[in-house]
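Fig. S4 source data, part A: sequence.
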Amino acid sequence: MGDPISGVASIDEFADGALVDTTISPDKQESGRVAAEHGARLIREALQTQGQATIIVATGASQFDMLEALVKEPDIDWSRVTGFHLDEYVGIPITHGASFRLYLWQRFVRKLPLPLKAFHFLNGEGDPQAECARVGGLLAEHAVDVAFIGIGENAHIAFNDPPADFNTTDPYLVVDLDDACRRQQLGEGWFPTFDDVPKQAISMSVSQIMKSRAIICTVPDARKAEAVAKSLQGSIQPEVPASILQKHQACHLYLDQPAASQLDQ
């Protein structure tokens, strides 16, 4: 397997993992709480062994309860933690209600008891390719200890919609959002009409997510049940981007009962 900072030549370099470690809770609040508890424990371990930690933080409705619990976790010296932004729309100002920069500031960064060592936001308002290069260059200096992510209704991870590029080693990409992804953003209430949903975004790549030492993946709600089942029980394929999580050695999936409803018992 490639060096955790320098990257990999192909996603095929990742060894096959065991079955994804899956925890099913009765409701989304409990699922978010136990996911945050696990993630916090991993952050503390990194701080103890390395003196610092690096995390990736996702957004969206699926992360509400997890982030609410994570900012309340005790005994984390957040001043030694560096955070990276997972994805952001192209062309959305930070003042827009759907801005993921705004989301992360309101729901995570400003609620911490101590300021982070740094948090590297993605700015989609200017040249998105240049922004990919800027933040990707910063990320190249870090090995990610914990990636907090979710799974979309179309089984995307970050904004890597199907068919996802499993092989690129670029840390960040400018991606086109498919209609299913855009309908999800509309359905979650981030935009007033479908036409208002951006058609492009900056997204962390699949290979970059997979280089994280641990992944905490929080997925609530029945609308995600089909994507969860395909991701965990189907073949690994770009048409189901989250299926690649089957190849990660330390991916921990947190579901509520509705999201787990289509899994084989």
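Fig. S4 source data, part B ends here. The first helix runs from residue 28 to 50.
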